Amino acid sequence: MNLETQCLHAGYQPKNGEPRNIPIVQSTTFRYETSQDMAALFDLEAAGYFYTRLQNPTSDRVAAKIAALEGGSAALLLSSGQAASFYAVFNIASCGDHVVASSAIYGGTYNLFAITMKRMGIAFTFVSPDCSKEELDAAFQPNTKAVFGETIANPALTVLDIEKFATAAHAHGVPLIVDNTFATPVNCRPFEWGADIITHSTTKYLDGHAAAVGGAIVDSGRFDWTAHGDRFAGLTTPDDSYHGVVYTERFGLEGAYITKAVVQLMRDLGATPAPMNAFLLNIGLETLPLRMKKHCDNGLRLAEYLQGHDKIAWVRYPGLLGDSQHELATKYLPDGTCGVVIFGVKGGRAAAETFMAGLKIASIATHVADAKTCVLHPASATHRQMNDEELAAAGVSPDMIRLSAGIEGADDLIADVEQALAAVPA
Ligand SMILES: *Cc1c(COP(=O)(O)O)cnc(C)c1O
Q1: Which tens digit of pLDDT belongs to each residue from 318-340?
Q2: Is 234's C-beta closer than 6 angstroms to any atom of ligand 1?
Q3: Which CATH superfamily includes the segment(s) 289-422?
Q4: Ligand 1 binding pocket includes 106 (Cβ within 6 Å)
Q5: Which Gene3D superfamilies does the UniProt record give (predicted)?
Q6: Residues 6+ apart with CB under 8 A from 362
C-alpha cells in the first residue's frame, strides 16, 4: 500500500459488522475469566489488555498505523512528545551513561536532556549538525548509548544528515534516534537512511488540528542489541521485575525495544495517552498527505515572498533555492520539507514584536505545525531558558520569528504578512 492508503487503512481492518472507525475503548480495565488468565498477562506469557496505563486497543491501533507509515516493526503512543523523547532515550540509557545529540533540537528536548536527564545521571554531548565526521566521532565515549537528532530541527530548520549520523552511531555500536516531527513520514522516512528509532510529537502535523498533545516512538526492528549485549544489558539480560524475561529472546529484535518501553517505562512512569486523544490523532493521520502538501506549498510561497521584501533581514526555509539547507533537503526531503519558515525582521526584537502584533490571520501561539497559521518568537518563548551561547548553538537568533504556515489560501497569508510588515517602521 502506498502512504496515502496506509494513512487510512493501516493498523485497523474491521471485521464483518465491526465499527468502520477505530473505536474509542474508554475503559481502564479489561475483564478475565480466571486469575490464571490475568497472571499470564502479568508474566508477559500471553498478549492481551489488562490495564490502560500499559496498553489500550485504541492507542495500539493508531500506533500500528504510525509504525506502518514509518516502515517500522513496532510503535508506542505516549501522552506527549516530551514523554516520547524521554522514554526513547531512557529505555536504553540510565545513570552513568552518555548520549550524543545534535545541538539543533527543540528547546524542550534540550531542557529535558541538558537539565533534567543530567540530574538523573545521564550525560549529553551536543554536536553541531554540520560537524565533520571526525568531530562527530570524537563526541563518543565508552559509555555512549545512543545518538539523537531531528530530521528538520525546530525551530532552526537545519536538516539532519541522517546517513552521516547513522554511520557514526553504528560505528560505535549504538542506535540513531531521530525526531521526525517536522518532516513526518510523508516527507522523510528516516529508517530508509539508517536511523534505528523514530520519535514524534504527534501534537504537530500528525494530529494537525491542535486538538491533542501526544507522542510516539517507532522501532525499525533492525538494530541488533545482542551484537552489543553488554552495552544494552537491559534488553539482553534477565529483567527481575518480570521473573527474568530477556526482551531480545522473548520478543525478538522486532519487538524487544518497544515491549520493554511499554512493560517497564509505561508501567512505572505512566505517560499513557488518553484513548480519546489516540482517536483524535487518527482522524488527523487520515488526511496527513493532503495537509503536508498544502503546508509545504504555503511555506515555500511565504519564504519566497519574505526573501524579496526589503524589511526582512534574513529568511531560512530548507525548500528555498540557495538556502544553506537546500542541498540536504533535496537529498532527504525531495517532495517537500514542512510548513515552518523562520526569518528576521530588520529592526530586531522591537520590529519583530510590531510585526507579530499586526498579523490578523496568523495568531501568536506556542504551537507549530497546525492547520491554522501561527507565529512565535522562540527566544522569548520555547527557548527562553537558554543563554545566548546555547541559543546560538540551537540556531536561534534573538530576532528570529518562527512562522508556521497553515493550510489557508496562500494569497491570504501573504496579504496578512504584507499588511503587518507595512506597520513596521522602515
Ligand atoms: C513539540 C515538539 C516536541 C515536544 O512535543 P510535545 O508534544 O509538545 O510534548 C518534541 N520535538 C519536536 C521537534 C517538537 O516540535
Answers
A1: 999 999 999 999 999 999 999 99
A2: no
A3: Aspartate Aminotransferase, domain 1 (3.90.1150.10)
A4: yes
A5: Aspartate Aminotransferase, domain 1, Type I PLP-dependent aspartate aminotransferase-like (Major domain)
A6: 373, 374, 375, 403, 413, 416, 417
